[in-house]
Amino acid sequence: MDSHDSESKAEAFLAWLKTMGVVMSPKIALVSFQSASRGRGVVALADIEEDEGLFVIPRSAVLNTTTALHATDTAATPAILDMPSWLALTAIILAEGQRQDSKWAPYLALLPRELDSLVFWSEAELKELQASTVVNKIGRSAAEDMFSQHISPLKLGHSSVDMCHRVASIIMAYAFDIPEKASQDEPENAEEGDDLVSDDEEDEKTILSMIPLADMLNADATRNNARLCCYENDLEMRSIKPIAKGEEIFNDYGQLPQSDLLRRYGYTTDNYAIYDVAEISTVSILSLLTKEQFLGTKVTLPSLSREELDRRVELALREGVYEDSYDICHSSPDAPSIPDELLGLLYLLLLDAENLAAIESSQASMSSRSKLATALVGQVVAMVLESRAREYSTTIEEDRTLLQAGNLTSRHQMAIQVRLGEKVVLEKASQEAKLFEGSDKKMRLKQDSPSEPQSKKRKPEENAAGRKKGRMR
């Protein structure tokens, strides 16, 4: 697409917004950036104060099953309503895209034609992510099964698998979950206010929606300066801090690691590196602890039998600390890098039989984090993290060298940034675990005492003291 065609489409979109009742502040403008990777965005044409309205979008201008389904083939409506929300929206956009008289045409024409989200990567490109578990979350085959089961029977034109992937990826990257408009049968809230758009509201019904103009804002974790608020009849983008003339206006995706940023939106940025996560499967943890481990020159961790392992896993389930996997992250004032649940699982796996039986019979809750973080638990955590890091085929230093050398394709570079971020998380967490100092007196471990020549044997009192000194703190 040449720049003239792009600008004409942008002008048609802005004119369409007016016909749809969208009101834009004269202090903002939709612009195209010179860098193709940045696409479009919204910038301030004048200084904007905190909590100032930027634009208002009527709910009738939002594209979702409520506003657009009636325009599609009515025979397909029941089938579409039975689909998962993302698939229903995919069907609607595919249907609207082939209608010459679609009222959404100027908006759909401005959506991207190519994306870098992981579903479009080749097998060779995905291999560059190495041991990152994000590869297992792409769901390409599952999505194609859904397309075949739900989209194909609708017999929509231009609904090839590639087109379905493109539309579904646009929805994943651009759509919002917004609260549904209250029906006439429902009482109005006594306290009406502006609700931040979120998909974390468990009690509130939401509807997946494409919101023209709102989805043109780029996102930045550190420069977020606007938020979308929902009202009964419209949506409003408002500033959350002063914005100077010339500055870009940013939304925020939330605390996403770079792996999810790449999977969902097709890019990475150092601004989200603080949210990077390394995932460790419980299967790998249990596999390690069924083998005898030598944790030091004098300390051995005995292996667990299958019966002993099952008993401890059952207790971990009862105590709510057993999960299929655990996320290791950068530590912050709000959360440690090593989750309490992982410490709880390891604590139960490392307890001696006597103390394990005491917990089983007492029905008491787990100890506090300070008591879970014993020196032995820390050693085992570090062992688990270092084992996980070895699953990657390059080291932190090698990845940094590759990035500094340059000459990489954009996808190769993004893959390195993702896997490097995860390795850094593992390394820092391992260093933190080695500093644990809690008491190991309840732990199951063996200590090997070195043999001494008969002539150098100490007195019994000294020998006992010496054994005590050799124990882990």
User: Which stretches are poorly predicted, pLDDT < 50 over at least 5 residues?
Assistant: 187-202, 449-473
Envelope shape: elongated
| Secondary structure tally: strands | 16
Number of helices: 18
Question: How confident is the prediction overall: mean pLDDT?
Answer: 86
The secondary-structure class comes to: alpha+beta
Give the helix proportion (percent range).
Answer: 25-40%
Main sheet properties: 5 strands, antiparallel
Report what the structure shows.
With 473 residues, this protein is an alpha+beta fold. The chain has helices spanning 3-19, 65-68, 77-81, 85-97, 105-108, 123-127, 140-151, 161-174, 258-265, 282-289, 306-318, 340-350, 353-362, 369-372, 375-389, 396-405, 410-433, 460-470, and strands at residues 23-24, 28-32, 40-44, 53-58, 176-179, 195-196, 206-209, 218-219, 226-230, 234-239, 248-251, 277-281, 293-294, 299-301, 325-329, 446-447. 40% of the residues lie in helices and 13% in strands. The strands form five sheets. It has a five-stranded antiparallel β-sheet with strand order 1-4-10-9-6, with no helix packed on it. It has a four-stranded mixed β-sheet with strand order 2-3-11-8. A three-stranded antiparallel β-sheet has the order 13-14-16, with no helix packed on it. Strand 2 (28-32) and strand 3 form a beta hairpin. Helix 12 (340-350) crosses helix 15. It is elongated and about 75 Å long. Its EC number is 2.1.1.-. Residues 182-201, 436-473 are annotated as: Disordered. It comes from Cadophora malorum.
Topology overview:
Elements: H1 3-19, E1 23-24, E2 28-32, E3 40-44, E4 53-58, H2 65-68, H3 77-81, H4 85-97, H5 105-108, H6 123-127, H7 140-151, H8 161-174, E5 176-179, E6 195-196, E7 206-209, E8 218-219, E9 226-230, E10 234-239, E11 248-251, H9 258-265, E12 277-281, H10 282-289, E13 293-294, E14 299-301, H11 306-318, E15 325-329, H12 340-350, H13 353-362, H14 369-372, H15 375-389, H16 396-405, H17 410-433, E16 446-447, H18 460-470
Parallel strand pairs: 8-11
Antiparallel strand pairs: 1-4, 2-3, 3-11, 4-10, 5-7, 6-9, 9-10, 12-15, 13-14, 14-16
Subcellular location: Nucleus
Region (Disordered): 182-201, 436-473
Biased composition (Basic and acidic residues): 436-449
